[in-house]
Each structure stands twice: as structure tokens, then as C-alpha cells.
Specification:
Layout (H helix, E strand, L loop, with lengths): L1 H4 L2 H4 L15 E12 L3 E11 L2 E6 L2 E4 L10 E5 L2 E5 L4 H9 L11 E5 L11 E3 L7 E5 L3 E5 L2 E2 L5 H11 L8 E10 L6 E11 L5 E2 H14 L13 H22 L1 E4 L1 H21 L7 H13 L4 E4 L10 E4 L2 E4 L10 H4 L6 H21 L8 H25 L9 H22 L5 H10 L3
Antiparallel strand pairs: 1-2, 2-3, 2-4, 3-11, 4-6, 5-6, 7-12, 8-9, 9-10, 10-13, 12-13, 14-17, 15-16, 17-18
Helix pairs in contact: 5-10, 6-11, 7-8, 7-12, 8-12, 10-11, 10-12, 10-13, 12-13
Bound molecules: adenosine-5'-diphosphate (ADP) and ligand LMANGFYV.
The ligand O=P(O)(O)O[C@H]1O[C@H](CO)[C@@H](O[C@H]2O[C@H](CO)[C@@H](O)[C@H](O)[C@H]2O)[C@H](O)[C@H]1O binds next to helix 10 and helix 12.
Length: 460
Amino acid sequence: MSEAIALLPEWLPHQHWFTAASSRPLGVRPVAATLVHDGEPRVWHLLAEVTHDDGADVYQVPLSVRNERADRLDHVHLGRVADGHVYDALHDKEATAILLDHFADDAPDTGGLRFHVKPDVKVPYGEPSLVLPGEHHNTSLAYGDAALLKVFRRVYPGLNPDLELNDALADAGCTLVAPLLGWVDGDWTDPTSGEVVTGGLAMLRGFLTTASDGWALATASVRDLYAEGDLHADEVGGDFAAESYRLGMATARVHETLAEVMGTGTMAPSDLRDIADAMSGRLANAVALVPELEPFEAGLRVHYDVLRERTEPVTVQRIHGSYHLGQVLRTVLGWKLIDFEGELLAPVAERRAMHSPVRDVAQMLRSFDYAARHLLITDHPPEDPAHDQLVYRAQEWTQRNSEAFCNGYASASQLDPRDEPELLAAYETDTAVYEVVFEARRRPSWLPIPLAAVERLAGR
Ligand SMILES: Nc1ncnc2c1ncn2[C@@H]1O[C@H](COP(=O)(O)OP(=O)(O)O)[C@@H](O)[C@H]1O
Ligand SMILES: O=P(O)(O)O[C@H]1O[C@H](CO)[C@@H](O[C@H]2O[C@H](CO)[C@@H](O)[C@H](O)[C@H]2O)[C@H](O)[C@H]1O
């Protein structure tokens, strides 16, 4: 195994799920290694501590070792070691079949790596796996069209929020998420304390065969509207408002179930002042990183100051935490919410904290604005003669769908998010500031989208 581990510093930075700050890890060492299968291929389950400029993280890297080089796996070949060729096991269909077989009751014991199946579940043994395409933070494998195994790449001690919330919602009989079939957890040696810790490693869910993601559907609607420059959002064939309404309802119902099964809390005015301070701190950091924010800083701070003056407490509960149109799937049975991991760069304790559900609503409203405006970047930049008119159309689409979403939410909840305008504005502002930094780092050409929101929220 040590020879295979020596290949990781070179290979990891090329994996899109590898989010460590520096381009090349400073060191990689195993914190748990389990030989899951001693045949051809050998299948190793490896948890590796990766140190980098900003600290250290633990990554999950299942590997398969084959006697002969397999051409079909060339794209996931890590390199050669004395006893064979090393591959990313999640792309090696024989290795992934072996992993799935470990959910069976009579599977060989793998010690500190444990496979669990929910009661009355049929695991689709024998179905071939396919890695879902796209630049995701984790690696998800579809087993036929029956199940999806989401293998968390960066892992943490304690409960993984995605697994925790999916499990709680499944036990509550909630049908607005994909059914949870099982999960994997495991032990490793915490590099800092030297103690053995346990954490969630993977989640097996039912595959939603008819799913289209919210971003694809919403942006198709916007495209229709742009193609009909003279028509209003409610007049074009691709009007999305009914879907937004239903999405608002689904969001409210998931919030309601989470409150029922995981409880609620109260955020006192002093806690709100802490939240406002944290938001102001994030704004200051963002201004230092993205100078375009500076002219709007004072106007944005007003939304945080309003929170500081609030005297009534706020009800809080577990929420989605990183909510946008890419986190919702439309199936023939309605909307389903996925990916409850929260903001990946935040510490787990923060991601598992309770917040006002208005925060999820504010994030989804930001996503409507993104969906409406992104074609202004890609297809109709400012030099396009239609640009100004389409900006107007984009605002209209966002307004219509935000209203529909809030109407749907209010129809299924005691809470109408619009009755909390100050919270909504503060969370929208905090999200837009986060997005400015995200886009400046990841997609600079998209920066005008959150900057337009910042300008509006700053009252310019
Ligand atoms: N149960 C499911 N059925 C079908 N497709 C799914 C399911 N869950 C997720 N997906 C697809 O997989 C993608 C990645 O899932 P997600 O949980 O968001 O992983 P990540 O955190 O790695 O981005 C989603 O964008 C969606 O297209
Ligand atoms: O999917 P993640 O939870 O990792 O979220 C990150 O990436 C998102 C982009 O994929 C980013 O979302 C922003 O862009 C979306 C369109 O691509 C838009 O719908 C969202 O509203 C907008 O925030 C998200 O901010 C980031 O954390």
C-alpha cells in the first residue's frame, strides 16, 4: 500500500473533488487502510490525510490494484507499483461490484469499515456501475437505474450532515428526498489527536430515473423568454412559475419535517448580533479579496445592522444549508431535494448548526436571479443590442418566480418568508457576498451576476 500512497501527491491535484488549497499536497499519509478484497483486482479502501498550505484534510480514496494494465481504465490510472497497476477503484466496475456486495448480510467482515442497509431494502446486487459525469465534490455511482452510491471524498469525524438529514427524513417517511437504502461508515486515526474517530463515508440511495435538475429546467424557461423578446414571463410557453410554486411547497414541507424530527431552537437577539458580526466579517474579507465590492460595502452593511437592532427572537432548525437550483431534481413525482452537506468549506459544526429556514429561501431566490441572468453573460453580453431589454426580462422572470416560490412556501407552512423581510435581505446579502468571492475565484466571467445583486441590495 505504501507504494500506492506515494502516487497520490501527483494524482490528487488533478481530481476535481480535491479541494485542498495548494496545487500540490505537501504530504499524504494513510489514516486507515482496509483490504476489502484480496483477488483480481485487489480492492483497498484508503483514508488518507493530506496536508497542504492551509492545514490538513482526510480524503477517501478507494483503490484497485490489477496484475495487468487495463486500457479501459487508462483515464484513472494512478501508476505502477511492484505488484501491479493502481486505479481509482470507483471507476473500476469489478471493484465497484465488490463494494456493493459488501452491503450483503453475509459479506466478509471489513473491521473498521462498515456497510449498513435500511430495513426492507432491496440492494441491486449485480447491476453494473457508472460514475455520474460532472464536476462534483464527491463521486456518485449509479448502479443500473436502481441505486446511487455517493462516496464522500473529503471526510470528517462525526455525523455527515447529508447522511444525517437524509436518514432523519427517510425515517420520517418524507418522499421529497431520494429514498435512503443504506450507508457506509468507518473508523480512522485522527491525525491531530491520535485517537480513533468514526465518520460517514458513503450513502446508498434510490436512483431517481426521471430526474431533471432545477437549474437545467429553470434556464430552459429563461431561454424561451429571451427568444420571445416581446412577450412577458407569464406569456411564454416555458413559464416556470408553477414549478417554482411547487418547489416552494416542497421546500416548506422538508423544513417542516426537519423541524418535527430534529427539533427547533430559539435564536436570541444576542445570537443575532453574533450572526450579524459574522456576516460583516465575511463582507470585510470579501471586500479585501474582490475590490469591485468596495463601493457597495456601506450599503450592504445596513442589512446586517438591522439584524443587530432586532428585539424579537428567531426560530431556528436544521435546514438544507447550501440551497440552489442545482440541489433540486424534478421527477414525475414532483421535486426532490438532494445534497444536504451544506457549504463544504465551512466547519462541520457550523454546517450542522440550526438556522432560520429563511436562509434556505434566500439562497433559492438568489438562484432564481442566477438562472435569469446567466444568459446575459454567455449569450447576450453588454455589447449585444438586445442586452438592456433582456436585463429587464431577467428581472421580471426573477420577480415572477421568486413570488411564486414564496407563495408555494407560504401555502405549505406557518411561515411566509416575506413576513421576515429583514432576515431575508440579510441572508440574501450574505449569500450574494459569498457568491462574489466564489465567482471571482472559480468563474470570473460570471462575477457580474452576484455583483448586480450586490448593487441592488446596496440600494444603488
Ligand atoms: N437519487 C438520485 N437519483 C438520480 N440522480 C441523482 C440522485 N442524487 C443525485 N443525483 C445526481 O447526482 C448529482 C450529484 O449529486 P450531489 O448529491 O449533489 O453530489 P455532490 O455533492 O458530489 O455534488 C446531482 O446533481 C444529480 O444530477
Ligand atoms: O453545488 P455546491 O453546493 O458546491 O455550491 C457551490 O457551487 C455552486 C455552483 O455550482 C454555487 O452556486 C452559484 O451558482 C449556481 C449556478 O451555477 C446558482 O444556481 C447559485 O444560486 C449560485 O450560488 C454555490 O454558490 C457554491 O457554493
